[in-house]
Fold this protein.
Amino acid sequence: MSTTVPSSGFTAPAPADSAEAPDTHKAHEAHRAHEVYEASDTHEAAAGGAYASAKSARSGADRTAPWGADPYANALRTGRGPLFLRRSDGWLLPLDVERWCSGAGSADLSALHRCEGPVLDIGCGPGRLVAELASLGHRALGIDVSEAAVARTRGLGGAALLRSVFEPLPGEGRWGTLLLLDGNIGIGGDPAALLDRATDLLGAGGLLIAETAPVDVDERVRVRLDDGRGGPDGRTAPATGHDGDAEPFPWARIGTPALLRYARAGGWRTADQWGAQGRTFVSLRRPVRERSARTSSQSAESANSAPVISSQLPK
């Protein structure tokens, strides 16, 4: 059940130009990590609905993405695969469900220890990063389009919302760090659009930490979720949900060189790049540029809204 709690409990990020909260408050914020940021849906729709619709159309992403399909939900429930992204030509990209459903590893920590201020984990999956950030004293929120992912994140004590990155979000223009790990730089199949959206979410000087493909690739594809079970003819069958074959959705695979090209074109500054346990990462500083009138208005509306609703998992 979802229950409303006072908005003073666990607030959205402070305006970007305000000072960080004293360290003495961090343990208290982490202790209350089960509380979930959420502005009024009606208010957010009025403030940014047109913008969110335009972004969703541009990227092909929305909250009904097939990550809610049974194979993904089943994998998160059991904590193991097999699970793949499957291209139309039959090529499969394995998804590391076991790692996602485990605790944060040393490669994850190499990214999390670079986080600054309040953190938004985009495509949080089963929530290991959000939970670890809370234990480190960060205010952290995960968003995901999968109900199973959000439920598992909350079950770990993390804060999470069922939301697409292209929908209105709490704290727009005030986040200190955005995370796009585990291949999530591919969300929407349009890295330039995703970077543009990240600019709107971060505060001035904010940090984007992204995991890139460990090879030099820049690929836009349409994929389906696949659990690896063969069809009647012995070939791999696409994943299916309640309504039959899952619809393909846009995805991108980009390596570090490609991401840096997109970042330079968008005015981002490279802060760092590194590797750990065979995984590759890049951190970028938000472009220094004036926000559009639309974004400034939306951020002001968001800042004035009551930002908190606590959500507890059903017992």
Observations:
- Residues 67 and 199 are 25 Å apart (CA to CA).
